[in-house]
Amino acid sequence: MSQDLPVTGYALLGLLTFGDELTGYELKQRADITLRFYWVSPAMSQIYTELRRLTEHGLVEPRTRPDGGREVTTYAITEAGRAALRSWMDTTPAGFPVLKHTVLLRLLMGHAAEPGRIAATLEEYVAELAQAREVLAAVREMLRGADEPGEPFHFPAVVADWGLDYFAAETQHAHRALGRLVPRCPTPPEDAAGGVPRLLR
């Protein structure tokens, strides 16, 4: 079954394992306060596409109920869905995350930027990290009280703490890089024999 679903499908199954039924909109809200910090928070259209796929596979069960004069559809994970999620988690290699870090990409070619641009970019990044850390800290606080081993939000709390540590480490690295910046060189530094450094050949 794991070959039939994209990772986003398994992510949505996982978000339905906390004991409640959710609408597509509620799944989007849950993804926005969890997945977006370390994966990708899917768009509403993608969520409904995956819910249709999961329903066709019998991995979730849609249930329609009246709500204030209209009907809403909620989704619950089925036993087959739990089995598929468990199989995916048991058989999928850990894998090494692909880091797409636009700040590091620009830092790599900082010699081609205008004077002060890379420092400004790093300072902007530090500010963005502070904002992200504040948001994640609020999410972490929401989990408090049910985050001990055996409690419903133990594993989400572990992930949130990991994220907070990551943001703190990124902030430290950015400050360290800021401290190492030198006046911009018009071209990459040359080695003693002339030309670009051997590392870049």
Automatic annotation (TrEMBL):
It comes from the Bacteria. Residues 12-86 form the Transcription regulator PadR N-terminal domain. Signal peptide: none annotated. InterPro entries: Tscrpt_reg_PadR_N, WH-like_DNA-bd_sf, WH_DNA-bd_sf. Pfam families: PadR. This is Transcription regulator PadR N-terminal domain-containing protein.
